[in-house]
Specification:
Shape: globular
Largest sheet: 6 strands, mixed
Strand content: 15-25%
Radius of gyration: 25 Å
Structural class: alpha+beta
Length: about 350
Amino acid sequence: MEMQTQLKALQERIATLKDNIQTEEATKNAFILPFIQSLGYDVFNPLEVIPEFISDVGIKKGEKVDFAIAKDGVPIIIIECKHWKENLNLHDTQLQRYFNVSKAKFGILTNGIQYRFYTDLEKPNIMDTEPFLLFDFENYKEHSVNELCKFHKSAFDVDKITNTASLLKYSTAFKQLFQQELNEPSEEFVKFFAKQIYSGRLTEKVLEQFNDIVKKSLQQSLKDIVSDRLTSALKKEEDTTVQPEPDELKEEESKVVTTEEEIEGFHIVKSILRESVEISRIYARDTQSYFGVLLDDNNRKPLCRLHLNGGKKYLGIFDSNKKETRVQLEVMDDIYKYAEQLKETIGYYE
C-alpha cells in the first residue's frame, strides 16, 4: 500500500474513532503507531521502533520518551505522544528536554492528529522552539505530504531533510503570518499598502478605513489567482487529430460547464498519479459527456474519465487497449480505491 493511500485510510480512521479514544495509550495504538508504520518502519521490531525510550535528563534518571525510531542502533527520531484532545502548545518543552540529551536529529510532538517536526537549526543539539514541518490529518495539504515522504524509511536522509528544514521552517512561519494578516491586518501591514496609494496624512480614521479595504482587496486577489490557475489548468486545446470548424468549436465549448466535483476529482487523480509521473504532465479536458484526464495533454493518452453529470457518478479506467471500464463512485474520495489501476495506466504510455 502506497504511503498516500495509507495516510488517507488513517485520516478516515481518525475521523471515525477519535471520539471513542479516551486515553493517551489508546491514541498511541490507534493513531500514532499506524502513522509510524506508514513511514515504512516496523512497529513490531523493538530494535527499529523503540517504545519507552530512556532519555536521562540532567539529574533525572530513567526519563522516557514515548518512541524512538532507530537506525543501526542509534536513535534518529524521537516521538513524544499526547492524547488526541491535548493542546500541543503545552508540551513542546518536554520534548525539548529529551531532544537536547539524545543523539536524535529530529523530534516529533504529536497527539495523533497533529504532528510537529523539530530539529536544531539555530543551535547544534538544542531543539528549536518552532517546528520546521507541520502535518495535520484534519487539514493537510499536498506539499505537507511531499515533505513527509522524506521521513519514509526508504528515503530517509538526514542531510537532505536538514537542508530543506530551514526553508520549510521560515516559509511555514511566513504563511502563518500572512494568514494572520489576511484575517486581521495589523496597523503596520495596513500602513505599508496605504502609503503606496494615499498621499494624505494617515490618521487613525484613515487607517481604520484602509483596514477593511486592504483586507477585502487581498482576499479578492487570492480568489482571482486561484480562479486564474484553475482556468489555465482546465483550458482546452484543439484536438490534434480532428480539427473542428471555429464556429463548431465555439458552440461546443459554450455548452461545457466544469463543476466543483470535477475539479475535486481532478485534484484527487493528480495526487495519486504524482507518485508515478511529473504532475506537470497531467492535464484536464472537459467535454459535454465527461471530464477527461490526459497524459501530456494528448487525446491518445487518456488516463481516466470522470462521469459526474448523471444521477450516478462513475470513474472510467482504461486498460492497455484503451478500453474504458466504469466503476461507480459513492463519494469523490472513492477514487483513491482505484489508485493502483490509475498508476498502471501511466505505464501504458511510458
